[in-house]
Amino acid sequence: MALIDSLIGATGQWVSSSDPKARLTQPLAWLRKTSGYAAVNRIIGLSIPFAPRNGFSVEEVRPGFVRAKIRLKGNKNHFGSLYAGAYFLVAEIPGGVLTLFDLGPAYTPILKEMTLQFLQPANSDVFVEFSLDEATVEAIKAEADATGRAAFALEGTLYDQHGNHVATSIAQYRVRKKGFKAS
Q1: What is the pLDDT of residue 46?
Q2: Domain membership flag for residue 158
Q3: Based on the number of CB atoms within 10 Å of its own CB, is 25 exposed (0-12), middle (13-18) or buried (19 or more)?
């Protein structure tokens, strides 16, 4: 576990210091960004092999923000739109990514509950975005440091490749502080 914690910590530092808007016209910045996202997706694949097999990928991650995608290909339901389980996958994993990279590997995120409200079928890849402001991150850390755990909610907007809002997720998370000993 120490190796994966070190890997998560180093990857978080690498990705947070990259420019999410870097393009090929800035080859070194673009390489730093794309290699960082590749590392994030590799860590997810090692931890949750189900995710990359189903076309999940993190598209952008920076302090307080994560954007992820699930492909339609391989995830269609009986009438050709995105399968409900794929919505859940793309809405659940980024919350863990966001908390791991913003709080650090000393905190373990645990999903306690999630609801999805489907608004319209998605006939394309689906994206989701989550954010946590710095004050919330600090409050979560303070509570987890004091009590061993902290609860928080994340709301995600899921949209298709055309920008249509197709679903909303609300996830209730708890983080646990590794090695916490009550005094």
Answers
A1: 82
A2: yes
A3: exposed
pLDDT digits 0-9 by tens, 61-76: 888 999 999 999 999 9
Q: For residue 17, give the amino acid letter.
A: S
Q: What pLDDT digit, counting tens, does each position of 103-118 carry?
A: 888 899 999 999 999 9
Q: Which residue has the tokens 């990514």?
A: 97
Question: Which distant-in-sequence residues (6+ apart) come within 8 Å of 26 by Cβ?
Answer: 19
Asked whether residue 170 is domain-assigned, the answer is yes
6 falls within a domain: no
CA dist., res. 133 & res. 81, Å (int): 33
**Type of residue found at 8:** I
Q: Rounded to the nearest 10 degrees, how much is the dihedral formed by the CA atoms of 29, 63, 46, 41? A: -40
Query: What is the residue range of 88's domain?
Result: 53-177
What is the CATH classification number for the domain harbouring 158? 3.10.129.10
Question: Please, are residues 29 and 18 in contact by the beta-carbon 8 Å criterion?
Answer: yes
Task: State the pTM of this model.
Answer: 0.84
Number of domains in the chain: 1
> What does the angle CA 86 – CA 38 – CA 158 come to, to the nearest 5 degrees?
30
- According to the model, what pLDDT value does residue 13 have? 67
Tell me, what amino acid is at 53?
A: R
Q: How far apart are CA 112 and CA 176, in angstroms?
A: 12
59 in a domain, yes or no? yes
